[in-house]
Design goal:
- The chain has 153 residues and is mainly beta.
- The chain is 3% helix and 37% strand.
- It has a five-stranded antiparallel sheet, with no helix packed on it. A four-stranded mixed sheet has the order 1-5-2-8, with no helix packed on it.
- The radius of gyration is 17 Å and the shape is elongated.
Length: 153
């Protein structure tokens, strides 16, 4: 069961009057392997909140769903929020291998589900889930096969 990650728990300190019934419930789906996902949100005031979510090494990226919650107020404001998720094969901050971005709005009194499918930023010639630019063997799926694939057994 995926663990929910709250985007910057310090946000509660910025807005002690936070309405727990108003939130965005994010589901992040990966297209390739990732060791870390960086989640950022830009609110109407233009301020950006960012957090890094570690991904368990044993997780099969094809079925892995990461969850997070965003609450209104403070740096995010009360209206529209641009949400961006970047997946990194290595540590967060290196070159991302996959990404998703979407603008959403808080709806007062509602927890709004938001699904983001991260997409590879480069083609994956051998189908192992790693983009060619970051794959040590971009034409050999046998060398780094996807977990659970025929060649990976």
């Amino acid at each position: 069961m995926p663990r929910p990650w709250l985007l910057l728990p310090a946000l509660a300190a910025l807005c002690a009057c936070r309405d727990a019934n108003t939130a965005l419930s994010l589901s992040l789906r990966l297209q390739g392997p990732a060791a870390c996902v960086r989640l950022s949100a830009t609110g109407e005031p233009g301020q950006v909140l960012t957090t890094d979510i570690p991904v368990e090494a044993s997780a099969d990226f094809r079925t892995r769903v990461l969850t997070a919650a965003l609450y209104p107020g403070g740096a995010l404001g009360q209206g529209g929020v641009e949400v961006r998720a970047q997946g990194f094969a290595g540590a967060c901050g290196t070159s991302p291998s996959q990404e998703a971005q979407r603008t959403v709005r808080f709806v007062e009194g509602a927890v709004t589900p938001v699904e983001l499918q991260l997409l590879l930023l480069d083609k994956d010639g051998d189908g192992d889930g790693s983009p060619d630019g970051q794959d040590c063997a971009p034409t050999d799926a046998e060398r780094f096969p996807r977990p659970g694939s025929e060649s990976g057994r």
